[in-house]
Amino acid sequence: MIESPTRTILIPNDSEKENSQNSEEVRGLIAALRAGTRSKNLLRKAGLHAVSVYTKQFELLLGAGALEILDEELAVLRDETLYSEHTGLKIPQEGIAIFS
């Protein structure tokens, strides 16, 4: 089997039900990770609300400004419109150009 490197992206709202207890839990986990807290238990819980993507897909999302990097292994999806529990994560085909 050929191994391909993947990156982990946490989904802030992996439930389409607003104000759900699940959504509050996910946001609490992300807040702890943003504060620099790392533990096996915290990462295990966060993993339940995460997706893995290949490096190229990660770079496309990053280029589109859709990710917040937490550390070299974790990112948070900023643009929640790119995720649906029914269809998964939508990967933009190109980065977004910014003109000034």
What features would you describe in this structure?
- Residues 1-23 are annotated as: Disordered.
- Residues 14-23 have a biased composition (Basic and acidic residues).
- By secondary structure, the protein is of the alpha+beta class.
- It has one domain.
- Helices cover 31% and strands 21% of the residues.
- It contains 3 helices and 6 strands.
- It has helices spanning 21-34, 40-47, 55-63, and strands at 6-10, 50-54, 67-69, 74-77, 83-84, 88-89.
- A 4-stranded mixed beta sheet has the order 2-1-4-3, covered by helices on one side.
- The radius of gyration is 14 Å and the shape is globular.
- The mean pLDDT is 86.
Relevant terms:
3 helices, 100 residues, alpha+beta, two-stranded antiparallel ribbon, single chain, 31% helix, 6 strands
Rg is: 14 Å
The run of helices and strands is: EHHEHEEEE
- The number of helical runs is 3
Arithmetic mean of pLDDT: 86
Major beta sheet summary: 4 strands, mixed
Please provide the count of β strands.
6
How far is the first residue's CA from the last residue's CA?
46 Å
Unreliable runs: none
